[in-house]
Specification:
The chain has helices at residues 19-22, 39-67, 71-74, 76-92, 122-125, 136-155, 167-196; strands spanning 24-25, 34-35. Strands 1-2 form a two-stranded antiparallel sheet. Helices cover 55% and strands 2% of the residues. The chain has one domain (19-196).
Length: 197
């Protein structure tokens, strides 16, 4: 007869969830909600960071086009709309809009500042040299190159499906950003043809 003690099943205690230990404050969406650090959440945070950096990049192109008074050609509205559509993409990733409390806007002072404004990011300005001293040709070529880089950066943004509020709206926002960046590059190309004349 076998010893009953030797056959006693070993019951493992369930491990405590590490979610609390790995919980992070979601700084990107300006909320105090704590979420476990999952692959989807890490992917979402990476996408948000890339989008915000791209919004800065686009704002820089827009600001520098104004320095050379090229805005009539680059139609700053194309760049501005590209930046706005990236804002919609951020919303689909669950970040808060700076305008979420529009009911609290009573005076001009209450209007929130532009998000991802290149003027407030001195480290971004280091990427650009003395733009004002460039010839119009060199300025246009640099802006076209910077816009092409922005399109490449847009293509590199991966959005984990589980992190999107509405994948269809996110796709539309990304496509609209692409369209407006291409338009800005086309319009800079028009300047090249004007210079040749």
């Amino acid at each position: 007869m076998e010893d009953k003690k030797s056959k006693k099943a070993v019951v493992k205690k369930p491990r405590k969830s590490r979610a609390k230990k790995d919980a992070v404050v979601d700084k990107d969406s300006n909320t105090d909600v704590k979420e476990p650090r999952t692959d989807v959440e890490l992917g979402r945070q990476a996408a948000v960071t890339k989008i915000r950096n791209l919004r800065l990049h686009i704002d820089g192109i827009n600001q520098y086009s104004k320095v050379k008074t090229l805005s009539a050609y680059t139609r700053e509205d194309s760049l501005f709309k590209a930046k706005c559509w990236l804002g919609k993409l951020l919303a689909e990733l669950g970040t808060d809009s700076p305008y979420k409390d529009e009911s609290k806007i009573k005076t001009i002072k209450d209007i929130p500042a532009n998000a991802e404004d290149v003027k407030t990011k001195s480290n971004f300005n280091k990427k650009f040299f003395d733009f004002g001293n460039l010839s119009t040709l060199d300025a246009v070529l640099m802006l076209r190159s910077s816009t092409a880089d922005a399109i490449i950066d847009l293509d590199s943004i991966d959005m984990p499906v589980g992190s999107l509020k509405n994948p269809y709206k996110a796709s539309v926002a990304k496509a609209q950003t692409y369209i407006h960046l291409c338009e800005a590059k086309f319009e800079l190309g028009f300047i090249l043809s004007q210079i040749k004349k």
